[in-house]
Structures are given as C-alpha cells and as structure tokens.
Design brief:
The complex is a heterodimer. By secondary structure, chain A is of the alpha/beta class. Chain A has ten helices and nine strands. In chain A, strands 1, 2, 3, 4, 5, 6, 7, 8 and 9 form a nine-stranded mixed beta sheet that branches. The longest helix of chain A has 24 residues. By secondary structure, chain B is α/β, with parallel strands linked by helices. In chain B, about 45% of the residues are buried. The chains are: A alpha/beta, B alpha/beta. Chains A and B meet through helix 5 and helix 8 of A and helix 2 and helix 13 of B.
Chain lengths: ~350, ~425
C-alpha cells in the first residue's frame, strides 16, 4: 500500500451551492480552490437587487422570482429571507455531489500555516467509506498514517458509503444565542486533526456552513425546512435537515463523517437577533430530539424519498401537538419531495447499496 | 446615518459602568430591568453578587430568563482547575518485565505524587527492580494466591491480566493504568504530556453520551456546546472510563502491523470526546483510567485466549473488559471518553511472529462484537456487579456453544464479582 494517489477534482461531478443576500466577494479568497467548479447561487431576500459574482466563475443564479417560476405553488416549501433557501440549489443541481458554504466563511490555515483546501478534504471524506457500526479510537481509519485498531472486527472494515461530510469552523464557533451572550469573546482556536464517523443511532447538530454530501445517495433528505419570513423559528434549518438525514442514513446503511476540514468563520451574528429566532427552537428541540431518537422507519422504505415521506407522516402525527408549525412543516416536507421528484424525474435516489447486515 | 442614542440606552450604559456600586434594583421598571440584565450579560459582567441583585428584585421576567438561560450559582467549582487529591488515585502497573527502572524514571515527574500498585506477572520469575522515591506496594504471585486462593480459579491474573489484581485490592476512587513499555509523549507544542492528570480531568468532568457535540468535549477550555445541542442534556453524566491513545506504535492488531511494518502513529489529535451511548468501541488497556467506585467490578479479567501471549497483539482481554464496561455504562447512565492523553509506546515484539502464532483473537471478535452490540440489561440490574452477573449469564447462553473460551469467560466473570465483593468488604472492615 505504497504511495498516496492524488484526490480527484470531481469538477464535473460537484456543484457548489451558496446562499447569499449581499455579495460574493468572499469567493476571491476561494478562487484557487473553487474556480474549476460550477456554482449555484441562491439569492435570498430582495430579488430586484443584483448580486455581483466575481469574474471567471461559472455559475447559475436563482432569486425568489426564479424559485416561484420554477416551482409554482410548490415554491411554498422554500424559505424566504433565510439561508435555508439554499436547499433549492440542491434540488436544481444535476451533479452527484454538493458542497455548500456560507458567504462569511473564508480559507483557514492549518497549524503549519498552510491554506486549507476545504473542498479537497470533503472530497477525500466522501470518497472513502464511513464506519458507523463500531467506533475506531484512531478516528477515520482510511486516512493516511492510520488504520483500524486492535479489536476492530474484520467484517466491518469495508465500511459503508459516506453520504455526508460535515466540516468545522475556526474563529467564530457555531454557538446558539444564549451561549453567544454568555461568551461573546470565545473563539475556536483548537485545530483537531481528525475526521470521524458519527456512530449509528447517535444524533448530532449539523451545521450548514461547511457541508458536503452525495446528492445521489441522500439529496432528498437535505430539506432545510420552513424558516425566516412568516415562520416562528429560524437558525434551525440545518439542524432539522441533519436530524432527518442522520435517521435516514442510519436506516439505509450510509455514513456521516464530521471533523476536518476547517474553514475560517469571520462573522459573528447578532446574538439578540439570534435569540429571537431560536427562542422557540430551544424549547421545541426538547421534544424534537426524543422524537428523532425514537423514530423507526419500516423496512419497506428503501429509497430516500420513501423514508422522507414516512418521516413527514410521523412528524405530523407526533409533533403536531408541540405546535401547529410542525403540521405546516410536515406538509412542506411532502411538497419538497414532490418538487424534488418533478425536477429530478429519472433520478430516484438509489436504494441502499451496502451489503452490510442491517444492525 | 446612525440614530443618536436614546436617553434610556445612555442611562443603562452608566448603570452598567456602576453596577458594582448598586445595592438594590427593585425600583426599576420591568422593561428597563430586563434591558439592563441583557446588557450585563453581553458585557460579561454577570458575577455572583450581581446575579443575586437581579434575583432579589423578584421580577418574573428576570427569573424566567435566568432559568431559561440555565444560569446557575456555581456552588462548587467544577472547572477550570481540577484539584486532584493525591489520595484519591492509585496508579496500577502490571509488570511484565523485571527491570522497571527506566520506565519509572521516565514517568517520575508524573507518578511520584501518587501511590502506585505494582503487580508482578505471576509467570515472571525473579525480583522486580524499582527505583526509590516512589510510594508503592508490590504484589507478587504469592500475594495473589493468598487473596484468591491457590486452587485453580477461573480468574487468571497472569500476563497483562495481572493488573486486574491491582484494581481488586485498591481502595481509591480513580485508577490509572499504563503498560510498562510506554513512556510520556510530547504534544504538538513539544510539551511533555501528563497522562495521569489528563485521565483524571476526563474522569472528573461530565461526559455527554446522549448527543454528539461536533466540537468534541464541551467542558474543555475554549470550547462549548454547539448550536442545536439540547439544553436539557448539557449537564452531562458521570464519566466511568477514560481511554487514552498512543503515539509511535499504535495499538494495531498483528495482521495490520505485519502488513504495514513501518507505520507509526505521528498524528496528535487534540481532542477528548464522549463515545455515544450504544456505540461500541475497542478499548485498549495500554493507557486507561477509570472510576473504580462506578465501574470497578465491570473491569473483568475474563477473556483469555487459549494461546494468549505477552505482547498486546496476542491478547484481547482488554477489548472484552472494555466492552463490558461500555455496555454497563450505557445501562447505568455513565459516560466513556476517548482521545487524550497520548503516551509514547515503545517498539517491542514482532508482528509477523505474533501473526504466525495467533489468529484466534481476530476471529473471535466477529462473534464478540455483535454480542455486545445487542446486549441489553434488565431494569433490575442497578449496580455494576448486578450487570456483570447478567452479562455472564448471557455469555454462557449465547456464546458458550461457539468456543470454550466463552465458557471460561462466563465463569471468570461470576468468580470476579464474588472476589470483588469479598475483597472490598474485607478492605472496608480493615479500614473501619
């Protein structure tokens, strides 16, 4: 097992989805890494504003008018005035992989001072298997310089396909509003040189700032919910998508990795504004988490769409009494799947491909 | 054009500056009080005295905000400086080599403040060489026999399992155990790692097994729970086991090391994390710490390969006891952490030679892991001892038909619990 083969660029197989309301100046810093790729820009907010895209990038841009035109009445499932609208980009993409990043995220440096090519690391994560059934104490065993430890069963060493690669952030950490209020000066300066698979049956808080996924394997589950204008809650879009995605990945035998790569998160949002958006979510998540922990999907659900539709049914049945919002959300989840299937007709997400026994 | 500040905000600015001189806030109108409270938080000025001031107003909005934000008067400090009481820790060393001089010298700076229990492998003939300046007790074959009885017991304390005798006779709360072929490692800044202090920190700070925190251990300095982490789960649970890692010679099995003879672990991963509930892991005994009061009886010396040897590649006893502990921690609501500290593991042995001798352990894992993953304990099992007895019965029922090693394991687990009860009561009578 000598030399390390270079990471493929996948430039014709990967779209970069960026939600924005102001400008895309941050792309200048990413140019050396992003320029080969096609960008899908989802413009939130006022559609009459023109978003300037730096020269030399190949992109398509969608504003609210485009979303309404393309989806018609189904556009109601796409959030307005919230970065959750980015999931529209996932829906219209035709590529196998998606990388999504926020417009206040920049290139970080590793401890040696070298610029981190976040996209390359995500690709490495996604192209190597995940190991959700048994925790490897040396973390991702497929990374150079490491392996499975003593005691790790050989039958589990093939791993399962990786559906999602969840990256982290240096500088402004992704804290909720109460934590931001209490620790306004805390910065994440610790570079943890690890990628690891989140074990089956364990939920996690997924952040959409620096996220890559295999659209063919899990795309339809990446619905970022109803947030922003006219909705009682905000800043729970990626959380919601993450919990749905994790439950479905566990059911279908797919893996989710977290850890490297880091990006540099530059902007701290206003904690008072955040508190207003998150306020209900802080209480609701106490009901939502036990719901997701207890969810069980029938084995007849073998595609992502089937799983997601079933999940929507269960959300409606079990969370409606928490707040009528969840009935709306469950309906929107169904609308999302209908819209996804309309825009991606032959592209039903493939049934689970792994041969690993369902645990 | 920016709006000029309001009179109200100017007033609050001044109030904030002089907060420490104010002794009563109850005269303030509700909305002003609320604004002042939020600004105090934002300025990082909420001390115990000032919190009491706000609480004393008795205003509902303030009180409910305090409880929503989970602001508490910290009565006993939990962080940042962990006060390690030396008399709460035993360092247990299983001696598989006679001359411990260089090992002890290398660890002197870390070990010398604690009491050590050194157990000599009963198969090792001769006298141990231990340098002076340490507080320690040595246990040899004859000591083991006098406690356990010389008639053949199903619990065998030889080879790497000799250290379990040390766990048995200790009466401290925390036990740290490190293989005698390891030395202190250096971190990514070139500083020597105090593995004992890190294990104790891991054991004394809460674990978070019910929800994964993407920034790893939220109780470490400079980090916290991330957005989306349920507030009700933020107090965490007690940590029962701390699994450390190894630089240089990582704990690979023989086939892996034989296939990659030059591979050495040089990656320092600066993280501790809680292994989530119901996720199993291979616990390596090379570098561990545990809370003896919580999980001591669960650290069972039970799984002995027929041809178990004196190299880690030739054993899986720690993998077995580690999974017992994990199942029991999951059941009793304790946590298991993995990650820091690192130790430097020195070159020893030949993987290819071990490979020629021994495949048994590798093959048996295929049965062992699914067994532990599906193991469920009854509601009635409320202590570690109860749990071990139930697990022993399950091993006997489900695994015994597969290989005689499992019958021996089941018996050893039952015997161990009996021994544990006898020895601990004897010790507490002695201490009384």
């Amino acid at each position: 097992m000598a030399g390390v083969s270079p990471t493929p660029l996948l430039k014709d197989e990967l779209d970069i989805v960026i939600p924005t309301i102001r400008n895309l100046d941050f792309l200048e810093m990413w140019r050396p890494f992003f320029q080969p790729y096609h960008l899908i820009i989802v413009q939130d907010g006022d559609p009459s504003k023109t978003i300037k895209v730096p020269e030399g990038f190949d992109y398509e841009l969608y504003n609210r008018n485009d979303i309404n035109r393309i989806l018609g009445p189904k556009a109601s499932c796409i959030s307005f005035k919230d970065s959750a609208c980015r999931c529209f980009g996932y829906m219209v993409s035709k590529k196998k992989y998606i990388y999504t990043i926020d417009d206040d995220c920049f290139v970080a440096k590793d401890p040696s001072g070298k610029d981190i090519n976040a996209l390359e690391q995500h690709i490495k994560n996604i192209l190597s298997p995940a190991t959700p059934y048994f925790f490897n104490t040396l973390y991702d065993p497929y990374r150079d310089g490491t392996d499975f430890v003593r005691g790790y069963p050989f039958s589990l060493r093939e791993g399962v396909p990786t559906a999602v690669s969840h990256g982290l952030w240096l500088n402004i950490p992704d804290y909720d509003a109460p934590t931001q209020l209490v620790k306004p000066r805390e910065r994440n300066t610790r570079y943890v040189d690890a990628v690891m698979t989140i074990p089956k049956g364990t939920l996690f808080p997924m952040c959409g700032m620096n996220l890559a996924f295999n659209r063919e394997l899990i795309g339809p589950a990446m619905y970022f919910g109803l947030m922003g204008d006219g909705q009682p809650i905000g800043r729970y879009d990626d959380m919601w998508a993450g919990w749905c995605t994790k439950v479905i990945c566990d059911h279908l035998g797919l893996g989710i990795k977290t850890g490297l790569p880091y990006i540099w998160h530059s902007k701290a949002s206003n904690p008072f504004v955040n508190l207003k958006k998150e306020y209900k979510g802080i209480y609701w998540q106490e009901e939502i988490i036990p719901f997701f922990q207890a969810v069980s999907l029938p084995k007849e659900c073998t595609t992502v769409q089937q799983c997601y539709t079933e999940l929507a049914k269960q959300v409606k049945a079990k969370l409606a009494n928490v707040d009528p919002y969840f009935t709306k959300l469950a309906d929107a989840m169904v609308t999302w799947i209908e819209a996804w299937d309309e825009l991606n007709p032959s592209g039903e997400a493939p049934a689970k491909t792994s041969n690993v026994k369902a645990k | 054009m920016r709006k000029p500040p309001t009179l109200l905000s100017l007033t609050i600015d001044i109030a904030l500056l002089n907060l420490s001189h104010i002794s009563d806030l109850s005269f303030l109108p509700d909305h002003v009080l609320l604004e002042l409270f939020l600004r105090t938080l934002r300025a990082g000025k909420l001390t115990e005295k000032i919190l009491k001031l706000f609480v004393a107003t008795g205003k509902d909005e303030i009180l409910s905000l305090i409880s929503e934000l989970n602001i508490q008067l910290i009565l006993t400090p939990v962080l940042p400086t962990i006060n390690i009481r030396d008399d709460e820790v035993d360092i247990v060393i299983g001696a598989l080599h006679l001359d411990l001089t260089s090992f002890m010298e290398d660890w002197r700076a870390v070990f010398s403040r604690f009491h050590l229990i050194i157990v000599q492998d009963p198969d090792l003939k001769g006298d141990l060489k231990i340098p002076g300046g340490f507080s320690f007790d040595v246990y040899t074959k004859s000591d083991i026999e006098s406690v356990v009885g010389s008639s053949s017991s199903s619990v065998v304390f030889s080879g790497y399992s000799c250290r379990y005798f040390g766990y048995l006779v200790s009466h401290k709360k925390y036990i740290i155990s490190i293989d005698d072929d390891c030395t202190p490692a250096k971190d990514d800044k070139g500083e020597l790692i105090d593995a004992v202090a890190q294990h104790i920190t891991n054991l004394m700070t809460p674990a978070t097994p019910f929800f994964f925190n993407t920034l790893y251990d939220p109780f470490r300095k400079g980090t916290d729970f991330v957005r989306g982490y349920p507030f009700s789960l933020r107090s965490g649970v007690q940590c029962g086991l701390s699994c450390g890692l190894w630089l240089n010679l990582a704990d690979y099995d023989a086939p892996t090391q034989a296939l990659k003879p030059g591979q050495r672990n040089s990656r320092f991963v600066d993280a501790v994390l809680t292994v989530p509930a119901r996720a199993m892991l291979p616990v390596s005994g090379i570098n561990i710490g545990f809370d003896r009061e919580l999980v001591g009886p669960a650290m069972v010396p039970a799984f002995r390969l027929a041809k178990e040897g004196k190299f880690r590649w030739e054993t899986v006893e720690d993998i077995w006891s580690g999974m017992c502990v994990k199942v029991i921690c999951d059941h009793l609501g304790y946590g298991v952490k993995s990650g820091l500290p690192y130790v430097w593991r020195n070159e020893r042995g030949n993987a290819v030679e071990s490979l020629k001798k021994e495949w048994e352990g590798v093959k048996l894992m295929e049965e062992v892991v699914p067994f532990f993953q599906s193991m469920r304990l009854s509601q009635g099992a409320v202590t570690a001892e109860d749990c071990v007895i139930e697990m022993a019965a399950a091993v006997k029922e489900r695994l015994e038909p597969l290989d005689p090693v499992f019958a021996r394991a089941s018996e050893a687990m039952v015997e161990w619990v009996k021994l544990w009860k006898v020895v601990t009561s004897r010790l507490s009578n002695f201490a009384a």
